[in-house]
Amino acid sequence: MLANELYNRLDEDFDIKNIRDDWSFMDFNSYIVPTFKSKYMGLILDNSHNIEKVYTATFPDKEIIERILDTNAFDLLLFSHHAMGYRGNAEGFPFYNIPLAYLEEMKKRRISFYMLHAPLDRNGEYSTSVSLAKALNLEVVDEFCQYDNIKVGVICKTSFKSVLDFSDHVGKVIGHDIKLRNYGEADIRNGKIAIAAGGGSYPFVATELADLGINVYLTGFTKPLQYFEPTMEFHKIVKDNQINVIGATHYSTEKYACISMVDYFEKLGICAAFLEGKYFLEDL
Q1: CA 63, CA 85: separation in Å to the nearest integer?
Q2: Which residues are involved in binding a divalent metal cation (predicted)?
Q3: CATH number listed for the domain at residues 122-248
């Protein structure tokens, strides 16, 4: 498929012209296309005329790019949910820029890079929270968690009665250790739970959950950070309102959207594959 046709299709299908995002903290070097430096979404590296295959990933980590380079293939697209790599075990800010040597090699191999963060978080067929709900076999009945005029969280019905049983179910699906903070009663209230994939530990989210009467919340990053006050305030609010919080890591709660994007590209007639990345229990 012609690369520009694919970029334009993604731009249109995910309505990027009407969504805001912010990656102003990135290193904007000469490899990055000018439009990304103002829009902070969509095409980042324009290295290909044709796209023969798409690799989807949650983060453009160095290990992910190395695996693509190791294929020795040309005319590829890396599609990612984030514009930067992620190290959850790093002290302080966990995101890092793709090294220049990798960008140079991607240019030589005609490997382009396209990113959707806020547009893929916005609730929809391929979105992060909806895809996680599907993976957990939950029925989405409503949405919540609005920021920058988009809603990114979902309210789901569940047949599970106890918080512990639901937490065990999440752990089995996710496939690694998760963390349940028992801040509330042991039973799930009204058979409903809330999901906001990724980094959902913000005070406004906790306040909305309390207003909705939800007592079980599943998100990715749940670690209280002394140096980032919103996370501390989040935990205070959920404790005060007896809302149980389940953390399943930033990566693992968002990867299902990138898995579902394989289907999106294949429906366009493009070969696609998901590249499994790395989760960090330090997120919890």
Answers
A1: 9
A2: 81-82, 121, 250, 254
A3: 3.40.1390.30
pTM higher than the cut 0.90: yes
Q: Tell me the backbone φ, ψ of residue 124, rounded to 5 degrees.
A: 180, -175
Task: Mark the binding-site residues, compressed into ranges.
Answer: 81-82, 121, 250, 254
Measured CA to CA, the distance from residue 54 to residue 50 in angstroms comes to 11
In this structure, whether the domain defined by 3-117+255-283 belongs to CATH 3.30.70.260 is answered with no
**Structural domain spans, the chain:** 3-117+255-283, 122-248
Q: What is the side-by-side order of every strand in the sheet holding 139-147? A: 139-147, 150-157, 192-196, 216-219, 244-247, 179-181
DSSP assignment string, 81-93? S-SSEE-TTSSS-
Residue-wise pLDDT for 225-269, tens only, equals 999 999 999 999 999 999 999 999 999 999 999 999 999 999 999
Tens of pLDDT along 121-150?
Answer: 999 999 999 999 999 999 999 999 999 999
Beta-carbon contacts of 118 under 8 Å, excluding residues fewer than 6 positions away, are: 19, 20, 21, 41, 148, 150
Judge contact between 262 and 83, C-beta under 8 A: no
Is 161 within 8 Å of 153 (Cβ atoms)?
no
Compute the half-sphere exposure of residue 275: CA atoms within 13 Å on the CB side of its CA.
Answer: 25
Report, as ranges of residue numbers, the positions in the chain whose pLDDT lies below 50.
none
* Position 25, amino acid: F
What value, to the nearest 5°, has the Cα angle with vertex 46 and ends 12 and 76?
Answer: 90
For residue 150, the surrounding DSSP H or E stretch is strand 150-157
Which residues sit in the known binding site for a divalent metal cation?
81-82, 121, 250, 254
